[in-house]
Amino acid sequence: MFIPFSPPDIREEDVEAVAAVLRSGWITSGPVGAEFSEALSTYCDTVDTVLVNSCTSGLELSLRALGVGPGDEVIVPAYTYTASASVIDHVGAKIVMVDVEPGSFFVSAGTFESAITDRTKAIIAVDMAGVMNDTRPIYEAIERRKELFVPTNQLQEQIGRVALIIDAAHSLGASREGYRAGSVADFTAFSFHAVKNLTTAEGGALTWNKNLPVDHKELGALLRVLTLHGQNKSALEKSKASSWEYDIVSPAYKMNLPDILAAMGYSQFKRYDSILDRRHEIVARYDEILADTDTVALRHSGEDFRSSGHLYLLRLNGYSQEDRNQFIADMHSQGVSCNVHYKPLPALTAYRNLGFKTSDYPNSMAQYSNEVTLPLHTCLTDEQVDYVANAARNLLLSRP
User: Fold this and answer.
1) Strands of the sheet with 305-306, listed across from one edge
2) DSSP code of residue 336
């Protein structure tokens, strides 16, 4: 038996949805993407959603709309994938990296607060494995440091404080205290990459809080212009009779999502609740089988929250980094592909070259050293779920 880590769950209705777009003759951004965008906004309880070619682009788009650039600072966790931080470098701002709490995959509000200076323009928090951040204490921390905030563009002035951006690459469909991912931060970026719960092969979305004190129509127009080279009309708008003429209002970027890919995601979105339910069934079964092992799994549900069930993060107590790596090799020898989420940013060459040191982030390094991620996807059968969990359990219990 071979069990891949995270294959896409593409069904016949998804293939047909893409084929319908191909047959339509309109394959770039257009009507299908518009429907998908509207459905996402309704689902997340947000004003509007802009479809983009990656979550990375969504994060960068939020920073560019905020006017973040050289001389500014943006705070980000050390325990995340590079996309959360690389976008800060893309816009020319300073990456201010902070450690997670001991034994946690999340940064505390107090740590974020301590890192805020008069140069801070945004915080990028990360919903790890599909578990949402508790944003209330983060907003309280931002408010306590509000007197330091120095706005440098109109959007910053309207918000009047450090902006909170969520890297929600993992958490579409997650909820906390009755609020869905997308509705609790100023800006939220989702990923539809091939390994995500819902995929467009490559792609993502940026949505924003309906309580932002801004002109939402104006903000939506700005964000869309930034995704289309600064062009003030989309290709669909230009295709209408006598509407060819356009202007380039800024030398911007190319980040839009074509309808071929949007169709794949929109098709899966129509069954997304069942996708989430199945993922939680798998999490519960893993938890049950591994209950008597000396491990700590990230919790995916509680009285006030439910994750999207994106990743099954398991910490192997008493294991060194070398032991963890051997565990992964042993699982692979039994036909099970595992992974690690994530190698902290200071351990990567690009961030070492920027001056970050692993010694400054002991909690992140400790989390990483014995973390392993088991397969969690909707292509898994009940038999395969039990096989994965029992293979892990037997290895753990047979350790001297």
Assistant:
1) 179-180, 175-176, 305-306
2) B
Q: Are 42 and 199 in contact (CB under 8 A)?
A: no
pLDDT of residue 296: 98
pLDDT at 86: 98
Enumerate residues 6+ apart whose C-beta is below 8 A from 295: 314, 315, 316, 317, 396
N- to C-terminal Cα separation, the chain: 27
**Do residues 347 and 97 lie in contact, with contact meaning Cβ atoms separated by under 8 Å?**
no
Q: How far apart are CA 364 and CA 357, in angstroms?
A: 12
Task: Say whether pLDDT at 241 is over 70.
Answer: no
Q: Are 150 and 167 in contact (CB under 8 A)?
A: no
Structural tokens at position 362 = 């002991």
Overall pTM surpassing 0.90 (yes/no): yes
pLDDT over 80 at 235, yes or no = no
Residue 200 in this model has a pLDDT that exceeds 70: yes
Measured between alpha carbons, how far is 96 from 123 in angstroms, rounded to an integer?
Answer: 9
Model confidence band, residue 36 (pLDDT cutoffs 50, 70, 90): very high
> DSSP for 136-153?
HHHHHHHHHTGGG----S
CB neighbour burial string for 47-81, b if at least 16 within 10 angstroms, e if fewer: bbbbbbbbbbbbbbbbbbbbbbeeebbbbbbbbbb
Given a contact cutoff of 8 angstroms between Cβ atoms, the answer to whether 265 and 198 are in contact is yes
Answer yes or no: is pLDDT of 320 > 80: yes
Q: How confident is the model at residue 124 (pLDDT cuts 50, 70, 90)?
A: very high
Q: Minimal CA–CA distance to 181: which of 192, 170, 191, 173?
A: 173
Q: What is the mean pLDDT of residues 362-390?
A: 98
pLDDT given for residue 244 in this prediction = 79
Residues ≥6 apart with Cβ < 8 Å to 170 = 127, 128, 129, 130, 191, 196, 308, 310, 311
Strand order of the β-sheet with 73-77 is: 49-52, 204-208, 187-191, 163-168, 120-126, 73-77, 94-98
Dihedral pair phi/psi, residue 360, rounded to 5°? -85, -5
Eight-class DSSP state of 305: E
